[in-house]
Structure formats: structure tokens, C-alpha cells
Amino acid sequence: MADTSQIVNVLGKGLSSGVRSPILHRPDEYGLTYEDVTFPSMDGTPLEAWWIPCPFSDKLVIANHPMCFNRYGFASHLDPWKQTAASGGNTIEVNYMREYKHLHDAGYNVLTYDLRNFGHSGTANGDIFTWGLLESRDVAGSLQYVKSRPDTCTMSIGLLSRCMGANATFVALTRYPELFADVRGMVILQPVSLY
Questions:
Q1: In what order do the strands lie in the sheet with 156-162?
Q2: Is residue 195 part of a domain?
Q3: N or C: which end of the chain has fewer CB within 10 A?
Q4: CB-hemisphere CA count at 13 Å for 159?
Q5: Does residue 8 carry a pLDDT above 80?
Q6: CB 163 within 8 A of CB 66
Q7: How many CA atoms lie within 13 A of 195 on its CB side?
């Protein structure tokens, strides 16, 4: 029988530390021109992103991903990531590229990035995720970034935030309300309430 402290440690690690999922697809595979960009979170953590421009459009969607995912999606069809998703019955690859193409084809510029400790973004706060509390700094950083670019600073902004990305968006809205002054809409999917 396992020691209780070992069980608690394994459970705690599983609820606070993920294994970075690889980025398996890129926008150009779906006919989208994109640019690799890096911008800082509100606390300076470097965030890796894709800027997918839609020429002559003044509309922008910023995509925030769920826990364990990254800007591409999630490799839940491959081990060891398959083990994370299998308990919920999902072992099918999650690939957001088609979603970005639909947004682009509908006339939206897209900024999608890896939250801290996921994908190719920097490591922060001891390499743990906080279910949106500290990741809120990344959402705020993405808004600050688009306001700093001459080509995006006047665009109408919408947020597409899923699960932990949704939590992070709500926390960012509370902590940095001034950054949300130009946000015209938010789609918030599956926020997880732990607070």
C-alpha cells in the first residue's frame, strides 16, 4: 500500500504541474500566413505566439487555451498526453488550426499564444499552473501587446478563452480592467471555478 504522503504528492503535482504538449501543427499547413512573435506577460514571462493577419481587417480575436494545451491544441492522441485525457474518455487530437482558419476567413486577425509553462512560452512561478490566477498576467500581457503594435492598436478586440484560459480572462478583467476598455466581446468556454 502506498504511503498517504506519496499519494497526496502525486495528486498535488497532477493538479498543479503539466507535461508540456508538443506543437504538432502550424497555421501555414492550413493556408494561413503567420508570424512567430514573442511578447512579455505582465510580470515579464516571455510568451510565444502566432500572429495570423487578415489584411484590411480591423477585427482581432485573441485566443487563450485550456490547461495542458497550447496554441496548437493538445496531443491527446499520443503518449504521455494520452494518459492525461484518457480518464475523461478523450484520446482524439485537439487541433485548433481549423478554428483559426474559420476566424481568418470570416475576416478576423488572430493572436494565439502559449500561456506560461505551456507550449514554448517561458517557465514561471515554479513551473506550476494556478488555474488562471497567475495566468491572468498572460491574458493582460496579450492585451498590452496588441495595444503596443501600430498595426493592431486601434482594432476591435474579441477574446476566445477556454477552460483555464477562461478563468485567467476573468481574473485579468478583475485585476486589469483598464486593459479591457477596448474589448468588444468575449466567448468564454468551460470556465473552471475553484475559487
A1: 35-40, 46-52, 109-113, 59-64, 156-162, 183-189
A2: no
A3: N
A4: 27
A5: no
A6: yes
A7: 11
C-alpha cell at 159: 477574446
- Is 35 a member of any domain? yes
Contact indicator for 57, 51 with CB cutoff of 8 Å: no
Residue 194 lies in a domain: no
**What is the structure's pLDDT at 9?**
56
- Give CA–CA dist 161/18, Å, rounded: 19
**C-beta separation of 132 from 168 below 8 A:** yes
pTM of this prediction? 0.90
Please check whether residue 76 lies inside any domain of the structure: yes
DSSP letters for the chain: ---HHHHHHHHHHHTT--PPPP----GGGGT---EEEEEE-TT--EEEEEEE--TT--EEEEEEPPTT--SSEE-TTSTTHHHHHHTTT--S-EE-HHHHHHHHHTT-EEEEEPPTTSTTSPP-GGG---TTTTTHHHHHHHHHHHHHSTTTTTSEEEEEEETHHHHHHHHHHHH-GGGGTTEEEEEEE------
Looking at residue 81, which CATH number applies to its domain? 3.40.50.1820
Contact 48, 72 (CB under 8 A): no
Mean pLDDT of 74-83: 88
User: Containing domain of residue 131, as a range?
Assistant: 4-189
120 pLDDT more than 60: yes
- pLDDT by residue (tens digit) across 63-75? 999 988 999 999 9
